[in-house]
Amino acid sequence: MNPYYEPSIDGPLHDMVVPSDLTAAKEPERVILAEIERCGYAEDTVFAIKLSLEEAMTNAVRHGNRHDSGKRVRVKYAVTPRRVVIMVGDDGPGFRPDDVPDPTLPENLERPNGRGIMLIRAYMTIVGYNERGNEVWMMKENESWKP
Amino acid sequence: MEALNRSGHRPFSLSVERVGDAAVVVLAGDCSMEVSGQIQHNLVNLASQPVRAIVIDMSDLDFIDSVGLGGIVAAHLRGRHHGCTIRFVNPQPAISEILRLTRLNQLFAVHASLEEALGAAAKRS
């Protein structure tokens, strides 16, 4: 996977910063999903974005910031009727996404962890990371969009 | 009308009922990141007890994240030492798709009804 992703953003990019806990992390989700629903995205696309955003936020809080409530989670997002671009970043040291074992291999099916990144890749159109590995950028095309 | 949480989704609930020597767990609503850790806590505790099967009814489960799924896998690891199997019942299409993508539908049997799941668990014992 190309670790770098230069997102094509065709709308205003908004910023949010929230405390690093899973309850506070719901607020960006609430705002972004409301905007997506306002733009008329299909129900299955909303589901895909919600799941991917939750996985990214969970990774930021649990693995990136290691539940340190003094740290922050940064979110950038742009929502247009054509596509959604979201960045989730944490204050952690970062990681190498390609080092995460494939959870769908038979030998990994019984591992309790490690499915979040795979789900983001499965549900979003494009996924990439910054060089440090503490920011994930993801984009979802609105497949029902017509110019 | 059922109350919705602040995100406009049905709040998550988890309930357990004993049916013979099996346990039926009903998951419902929005099992999102702030609550999904409850699954591991409850199911691992349940799998530590002498139950023959844990049947998870997903009929009313609208959403589950990877932490919730991981909690089910953790319970599977705990329960298999005493022969406890975990079975799924009637997941909605969106949940079925997550199970297919993660291939957890290869680790856990998926049944169309509670009766079918309990019957399969009884045959196995």
Outline the secondary-structure elements.
The complex is a heterodimer of chains A (147) and B (125).
Chain A: E1 14-19, H1 26-38, H2 43-64, E2 72-79, E3 83-89, H3 116-123, E4 126-129, E5 135-141
Antiparallel strand pairs in A: 1-2, 2-3, 3-5, 4-5
Chain B: E1 13-19, E2 22-31, H1 37-47, E3 53-64, H2 66-79, E4 85-89, H3 93-102, H4 104-107, E5 109-111, H5 114-124
Parallel strand pairs in B: 2-3, 3-4, 4-5
Antiparallel strand pairs in B: 1-2
Helix pairs in contact in B: 1-2
Summarize the structure.
The complex is a heterodimer of chains A (147) and B (125). With 147 residues, chain A is of the alpha+beta class.
Radius of gyration of chain A: 15 Å
- For the secondary structure, the number of strands of chain A is 5
Largest sheet of chain A: 5 strands, antiparallel
Listing every helix as H and every strand as E from the N terminus to the C terminus, the arrangement of chain B reads EEHEHEHHEH
Which two chains form the greatest contact, residue counts included?
A-B, 27 and 25 residues
Counting DSSP E segments of at least 2 residues, the number of strands of chain B comes to 5
The largest sheet of chain A has its strands arranged as: 1-2-3-5-4
Q: Mean of the pLDDT scores of chain B?
A: 94
Structure class of chain B:
alpha/beta
Order of helices and strands of chain A: EHHEEHEE
Strand content of chain A: 15-25%
Largest sheet of chain B: 5 strands, mixed
Compute the number of helices of chain B: 5
Tally of contiguous helical segments of chain A: 3
Which tags fit this structure?
heterodimer; A: 147 residues; alpha+beta; five-stranded antiparallel β-sheet; 3 helices; 29% helix; B: 125 residues; alpha/beta; five-stranded mixed β-sheet; 5 helices; globular
Question: Can you describe what's shown?
Answer:
The complex is a heterodimer of chains A (147) and B (125). Chain A has 3 helices and 5 strands. Chain A is an alpha+beta fold. In chain A, strand 2 and strand 3 form a beta hairpin. In chain A, helix 2 packs antiparallel against helix 3. The longest helix of chain A has 22 residues. In chain A, 39% of the residues are buried. The mean pLDDT of chain A is 93. In chain B, 40% of the residues lie in helices and 30% in strands. Chain B has 5 helices and 5 strands, in the order ββαβαβααβα. In chain B, helix 1 packs parallel to helix 2. The longest helix of chain B has 14 residues. The model of chain B has no long low-confidence stretch (mean pLDDT 94).
